[in-house]
Give the backbone structure.
Amino acid sequence: MAKTAKKTVAKAGKSAKIGKSRASSKTYSDIIFEVKDQVAWVTINRPRVQNAFREQTLDQLIDAISSTRNDPSIACVVITGSGDKSFSAGGDFFAMKRLTFRNAYQWNDRMLATAMTIRGLPIPVIAMVNGWCVGGGHELALWCDVVIASDTAVLGQTGAKVGACPTVGATQYLPRIIGERLAREMIFCARRFTGPEAVEIGLINKSVPQKDLLAETLKWCETIKGHSSQTLRMTKKSLNFESDQLYASWQHGMELLAYVWGSEEGLEGMNAFLEGRKPDFNKFRMRNKAEMEDYLDGLDKDLNTSPSMRPAKSRK
């Protein structure tokens, strides 16, 4: 390397160490964002609702995470939740109750954009999971490259219990990560796993005592900082290649989810959760049964054809 080039690289390296990151100039209402020692820390800061996210939260996550592209000295991003009780409980029901088929894309597009921002970032994204990591919060962790959790963490999909659909990553990635059978059990039965259990089934990378979670995460960050950013960028793109083919499934999932928002079953599930009661989904099954019986009875009576064409017994 020529002397001039060496001086330029050395000068750039020195500036990167002492200069302020272009990615750390914004403050937000729903998240805390800061860059420390070449690591971007993104903390969902809504502890009163177990760090559940709303539309503004998703907008801010997208903006903050995307901003790391402006500072190539940042080696990785860590996403976590405020406090030690929850990484994220998923979507805020007070936000999701306002959704209908007509405005569904306002929420669904934000979820998809957050996922694509994380997956498309040229640096590794680590989920530091503390406490509850369920529903959409668990999908947020699934979008990340690496997941490190405390031994008190609880990871799972709760959609079946609250009338929502985990089609923003869970149905796409869980079968690939933990296998088809266990993924179906996790989704259909709303099965949850503790941090140590999640390591055993390959759902996360590592679980440590709560008191060691930050220190362990910092170790992973230091390891990444010592590796080639060019290699990390290229290999992340390559690792994503096959699962990127699932983009069509994401679009399909968004349309399925659009029909859930504002539906009677969806509202029953969310209202029951907010009211602290068990949801009554069986009333919908029984209503559907009655409607089906009426339909089948109509077939027996030839009601699916013009009255003038029905047998005499069916005209009564």
